[in-house]
Design a protein that fits this description.
With 396 residues, this protein is an all-alpha fold. It has a domain of 236 residues: Up-down Bundle (Na+/H+ antiporter like fold). Helices cover 70% and strands 3% of the residues. A hairpin with a 2-residue loop joins strand 3 and strand 4. Helix 2 crosses helix 6 and helix 6 runs antiparallel to helix 7. It starts with a helix and ends with a helix.
């Protein structure tokens, strides 16, 4: 027994200190695919994910405890970390220069509009399926960063900056889409309580509250109120991130930095691998050849694989013509096209929106087909984008 725990501790230390987070996400993804498509392990996997346990907390009824806990509670910390990153980059990093962010910000808008339009045109006759119009509109930052880390010796700073800013604004758009379009049966009473809680967080922000316990308690209360109001509770992470501040100084360390330093490891090494394990179990055994020609699959595939790069490139071209110059001098339209293709990797966030779109339809096959579309388009976009970027910048 002692030997077992010793080995486990050594493995955990190696994981937290040595393994690259982004490569590990790829490993978890492919292991999950193997587990979900093996006749001996798939039953165990899906019974664990959809554990049919009902429980009640403070009048809230929950079911599928694993599925619910990961997608509704743990992902709150993911959004919290994203907002803290955005705030840091806005005030201290590459987003601090207003002039530099305009081109990729406008490009991100095109990368949202055209994929959503493509999906909608494929599925406008089906009320249930077209609810997932936002599935191909988002980019997965962890996997994009993984590609960048592999190509680190090839790519110039301007390209990395453009792609990172593009991904950041893509995440902002994704958060806004989820907050506005993916909510259920709004309760005015609990929405009002949520609003009061947000005002209280704003009050703490302006008066430099130094009690971490009060701050976290408000976040937990807001999570329950948003859940009860019909708005997805992961939006709690957005408000918690917005109303933490560099002005909160606790033991000479700002609250923002203290929270981010603790959240980064927790999110990157624990939450994202768990989320991918829970949500990327695409069982190809349930998918037939005809499903590759379904409008749901085609809308997602062409939205991510074609809509993303075309929308990003076209909007970038419009912006540079309007300004009569390129903001990032050493990039050309082919470089931006490559960035658009890489942005077709929509894995984690796209799956998240799939669950929000079709979870109430009780049609698991619908979810599997949608995941398959995300998987194939992201895989092809990642490989093609990698090859194009390497070819364009290798000689430099």
């Amino acid at each position: 027994m002692f030997l077992f725990f010793y080995i486990m501790i050594k493995c955990c230390r190696f994981y937290f200190n040595k393994i690259n987070d982004n490569y590990f996400l790829l490993i978890v993804f492919f292991i999950t695919l193997l587990v979900a498509n093996n006749n001996y392990t798939k039953k165990i996997y899906f019974s664990l994910i959809y554990l049919p346990y009902n429980f009640n907390v403070l009048g809230f009824n929950f079911s599928y405890i694993t599925y619910f806990f990961v997608n509704n509670f743990l992902m709150t910390f993911f959004f919290f970390k994203v907002i803290l990153e955005l705030k840091y980059e806005r005030f201290m990093g590459f987003l601090s220069n207003n002039y530099v962010i305009f081109l990729p910000a406008f490009a991100a808008l095109g990368g949202m509009l055209l994929p959503g339009l493509i999906f909608y045109l494929f599925n406008f006759n089906n009320l249930i399926i077209r609810h997932g119009w936002a599935i191909p509109t988002v980019t997965d930052i962890p996997f994009v960063i993984c590609i960048l880390s592999i190509l680190n010796s090839y790519i110039p700073v301007s390209f990395r900056t453009f792609l990172l800013i593009l991904s950041v604004f893509d995440d902002i758009i994704a958060i806004l889409i989820i907050a506005i379009f993916y909510n259920n049966n709004i309760s005015i009473f609990f929405l009002f309580l949520s609003f009061l809680n947000i005002l209280f967080l704003l009050f703490l922000y302006f008066f430099k509250n130094k009690s971490l316990i009060i701050y976290l308690f408000c976040g937990l209360f807001l999570w329950f109120m948003l859940l009860k109001s019909g708005i997805h509770p992961t939006m709690t992470g957005l408000f918690m991130g917005l109303f933490s501040s560099e002005r909160y100084i606790i033991d000479n360390v700002s609250l923002d930095r203290m929270l981010y330093s603790n959240l980064r490891t927790f999110v990157d090494k624990i939450i994202l691998p768990i989320f991918i394990f829970v949500n990327s179990g695409i069982c190809f055994l349930h998918v037939h050849f005809k499903d590759f020609f379904s409008f749901l699959f085609l809308g997602i595939f062409f939205g991510l694989f074609l809509g993303k790069p075309i929308g990003i490139t076209f909007f970038s071209w419009i912006f540079t013509k309007f300004k009569n110059k390129n903001i990032l001098i050493d990039l050309n339209i082919y470089n931006i096209l490559s960035a658009g293709i890489i942005s077709g990797i929509g894995f984690t966030m796209s799956i998240f929106i799939i669950l929000l779109s079709y979870n109430n339809s009780h049609d698991l096959l619908l979810i599997e087909i949608a995941k398959l579309g995300v998987f194939l388009s992201s895989l092809i976009s990642g490989i093609l984008g990698y090859l194009m970027i390497k070819r364009q910048f290798k000689k430099n």
